[in-house]
Amino acid sequence: xxLVSSFPLAPSRWRQAVSRALxxxxxxxxxxxxxxxxxxxxxxxxxxxxxxxxxxGAWGWRDLIWATWHQQRAVLPAPHQIALDIWHSLLDWPxxxxxxxxxxxxxxxxxxxxxxxxxxxxxxxxxxxxxxAPTLERAVLPWIxxxxxxxxxxxxxxxxVVLGSLGFSGTLPKAVIAMYLCFFPVTVAMVQGLRAPQTLxxxxxxxxxxxxxxxxxxxxLPAALPYLFPALRVGIAAGLVGAIVAELPTGAQAGLGAxxxxxxxxxxxxxxxxxxxxxxxxGMVLTAxxxxLERAVLRGRGPxx
Amino acid sequence: xxxxxxxASTANQPVFGRPVVQIQQASVxxxxxxxxxxxxxxxxxxxxxxxxxxxxxxxxxxxxxLLRVIAxxxxxxxxxxxVNGLSPHDARLTRAYGYVFQAAxxxxxxxxxxxxxxxxxxxxxPPEVAREIARTQLARVGLAQFEQKYPWQLSGGMQQRVSxxxxxxxxxxxLMMDEPFGALDEITRDDLxxxxxxxxxxxxxxxxxxxxxxxEAVYLSTRIVVMSPRPGRIVKVIDSPLPAERTLALRxxxxxxxxxxxxxxxxxxxxx
Lengths: 305, 272
Hints:
The structure holds 2 protein chains of 2 kinds.
Chain A: H1 2-6, H2 12-50, H3 61-69, H4 79-92, H5 101-132, H6 134-147, H7 152-165, H8 171-194, H9 199-207, H10 212-247, H11 256-265, H12 269-297
Helix pairs in contact in A: 2-3, 4-12, 5-6, 5-8, 5-10, 5-11, 5-12, 7-8, 8-10, 10-12, 11-12
Chain B: H1 3-11, E1 19-30, E2 37-48, E3 52-56, H2 63-70, E4 78-83, H3 88-93, E5 97-100, H4 112-122, H5 127-140, H6 156-169, E6 174-178, H7 186-203, E7 206-211, H8 214-220, E8 223-228, E9 233-239, H9 254-270
Parallel strand pairs in B: 3-7, 3-8, 5-6, 6-7
Antiparallel strand pairs in B: 1-2, 1-4, 8-9
Helix pairs in contact in B: 4-5, 4-6, 5-6, 8-9
């Protein structure tokens, strides 16, 4: 980076953008080509049977390929079919219509974000307690680890039923499941991060007769921030998975998970892929948002941090 | 070590005020499987208000341990230590002293200014007041124009100056320094020694200074405590006949060299 910008004749920004976009672009192109090839291979037999009129029909290779890329309910829909489906879904319907993917994306994002906030808070709280009370570490940490070995798919229905019976429905039960996946990476990273300050820094606080709260606030928490953000990136992605999984067993009317379920129920593969792609985009946007937050918060720290 | 000589030497210091640190028969023993390590063995020392005391000796002589005992960073195994008439623990809670470590120990996420403000913040000084004090202290160590930099943007010498400014900010009557210039090059070290000397002369704070440099000890101190290892103990306490006002040129005078020689002899004696 420094080399490029010190070269006086190079339009460095433009070059930087190209050198960043190029590898991503190449991978994308290869993926798309592979995808089209694969959808020919996977859809061919079905197309021959149902569209072209049997193996003995009067059709050529061109007909076959064209048909595999435009089949309804294809085994593997072609990329442009998915793109068109998303396009129409986003533009043809108002934002509050269940046929608009943005409605589902928004509902899942709400549950994810609420779960992320709750999970981060819980993770921070647990980490602070564990660092300050060694007994608690021995008592609680095994349970925390054990909690993550239980499949979320098994926990989700139980949580939904229990919270449902208590009168909670909609976003909160889903957020609770997102939180369940979110808090763990935060707890583990923060326990490590809060213990990161070296003896010297702790002795410095000792000479100032700083209280535990002051030491936590002034030394431990800031020192733990570089540990926190990677955990938050993992946490928000895990939270999204939790929110989507929570939408599957409830027969929820809306949300990307509900959309996945209904599409799969009706065998609408294009819609499954559209919902899946929206979930991926949502995941990237959320992770990028955490990344931006990290850059803003850690701005000014040296190259080591 | 002969106690009468030491008592006599403190008695000959009428310029200095009340005792700030009183150490009697203090020992620090670290248990070890084979033989316990006697880091500090029956040390007696009295430090009075306004003195500049250097603790000098080879590695393992307990000079840092002694400093850490006064600062309540290390417990004593036996004996008594009083700081301002209190136990080191209580004295620390009254924020009786400022401590400068061997490394600058600046918090990397704080600017230079807010690093210097840190101890004031912890004491509940209003931010505007703390900022003013921090600015003044930074100006005194010649870093006024660096207040918005982060520690990693400064050289080692500048970082150490920041840590001194930080220790002085809350105006401790007692300043303890553990080889603060040990990691610096000689030119920077001379510069900081001169600044520290001026500071002591201007404000007459009590300073306890750990070093393994004879020149540094002789140049800065009013009294030099020579220590020796295995077990860590005081072998000699030397009063400096040098005038209070000192310049770096003083180091080429016969009086300076004679004192340095005396310290060197005491260090060599300690090895027997």
